[in-house]
Amino acid sequence: MTTEYKLRMGDGKRIFMTKEQIVADLKEGMADAADLGSIPDLSADEIDKLVDIITMPSRMVGVEQGMEVPVTHDIGTIRIDGDQGNSGVGIPSSRLVGAMMHERAFGADTMELGHIDYSYKPAKPVIAQEMQTMEICQQNMIVPLLYGAMPNMGLYYTPDGPFENPGDLMKAFKIDEARQSMEHSAEHLTRDIVWIMQKMMASGSDGVNFDTIGAAGDGDMYASLHAIEALRKQFPDIYIEAGMAGELMLGMHGELEYDGTTLAGLWPHEQAPLVAKAGANVFGPVVNTNTSKSAAWNLGRAVTFIKAAVEASTLPCHVNMGMGVGGIPMLETPTIDAVSRASKAMVEIAGVDGI
Amino acid sequence: MSNQEMLDKLRDTIVTQNINGCAEATQEALDSGMTAVEIINDGLSVGMKIIGDKFEAAEVYLPQIMMSAKAMNAAMEILVPVLAEEKGADDEGVGLAVTYVQEGDIHDIGHRLVTTMLEANGFRIIDMGVDVPNDNIVEEIAKHKGKKVILVGSALMTTSMLGQKDTVSMLAEEGLRDSVKIMFGGAPVSDAWIAEIGADATAENAADAARVALEIMK
How far is CA A64 from the centre of its chain? Predict the structure, then answer.
């Protein structure tokens, strides 16, 4: 009887696959990434290594000694106190306690202070509280503590913000008006991020995490890159982490450019140079998980994309690893068998500098 | 200007999303003696094929494809009455498309885009809107029994997608399944789902939807 190995589907369902089936899915996922991104395939040795990682008998695996990488946490302060809506575990605690637990108990190498709404815009009315909390956290912690939030340009559109919703405008075929609305929103988003970080830097923040750049499309990335550029000018020593929302920059506007490059349609290896040009210190590439495909397919695809991004990037790459990204199944609390295997593959094959 | 130059101009107005230019070029082509069918098949459709391919290759994006569709629509407003004259009042053309978003779902950007693309490709349209109960769909299809009809349903969510199965079975129960082609789309819809529920087709995106619809209506 052929040996079968325990894997998961992209939605987390337990499945069993033979080695031949695993290899076939790995190659198919790899080919998908190579085709979409016009990037090289993995080598035969790298495919073999992926097979080894996937078929290891241990429930949890780890990187080889000497290959350990820094682990950076987003939203971490809220992960303890927040409920499932915030990817949290619902244990009543302050944000200081959450941050210190990550530093002293969980081994986080950098940490982030984030607001429960976790976007820059809603941090504006509570900026005094954010500043005070940052100061207190800095007084109690050693690891670099950043301020982090999502650019989330959607909050600038009606009904949440002042500019007419491009979705509504596009439905009415008011394309020019939709684009103008995105451009106005981008200006305000850039301005708000810079203002918030001026306050947080005055409170001792070590830097900033842009979490999920491009969630609202190319306008979101346009605003974020300009905010990075402005912050680098104002604070030459600020540590800037630029994490993406998805693998492909969606062309909601379609014609926005940064440094002469059209933002729409960029894959991770094409995003990396622009993030460096804007002035970030770390690039956080993302590859999305397909819930209808196996973990082998997703991992083959994700490692292919991220390896190309690492090679193209002049910055250290800290790959996004979590629910629904980086070859990890889309579960609110991802399973350790999938997380540890995907992480090991990213470090040992894609060559990421951190997670 | 030669006929080929005229057709190239029509094609280019679609590819460059030149809405006013497309209408002007269409009128110019008609005035020069070209038929509406020639203008659509050899000029405008070629442009839509190019823009559809570019969209699939992530070289152009939602705003651009919507503007191309709008340019095509501007041309079709001029061409539809001419087509009726050329083909005769009884000719159904490529057919009637009944489009809607499944009950429980109000996401309509994709639905509107597909509707526009179908219209731009010569379908007559009945747009039933969003959150449409299956009873209303069956009632609408029954009105057009015996004609060339395609039902084009959209669902963005897995929960609303499940209603598509009931749509097919209710049409079958009413004896209408064989008189209508059925296409479903939306993020969760897959080929496997289409096969499971007994629909006819799905498509990757709006441009592909128009191509698939024309194909299954042949």
Answer: 24
Give the pLDDT score at B202: 96
Closest CA to B102 of B163, B187, B188, B184: B163
Is the CB of A251 less than 8 angstroms away from the CB of B59?
Answer: no
Write out the residues of chain B at the interface with chain A, using a CB-CB cutoff of 8 A.
58-64, 66-67, 70, 108-109, 112, 116, 190
Q: Is residue A22 exposed (0-12), middle (13-18) or buried (19+ Cβ within 10 Å)?
A: buried
Q: Convert the pLDDT of each residue in A94-125 to its tens digit.
A: 999 999 999 999 999 999 999 988 999 999 99
Asked whether this complex has an ipTM greater than 0.85, the answer is no
Distance in angstroms between the alpha carbons of the first and the last residue of chain A:
39
Burial class (CB in 10 A: 0-12, 13-18, 19+), B173: exposed
Residues A355, A327 contacting (CB under 8 angstroms): no
**Token pair for A89:** 């575990």
Q: pLDDT tens digits for B100-131?
A: 999 998 887 788 888 888 887 788 899 999 99
DSSP B185: E
Domains of chain B, with CATH numbers? Answer: 3-86 (1.10.1240.10), 96-217 (3.40.50.280)
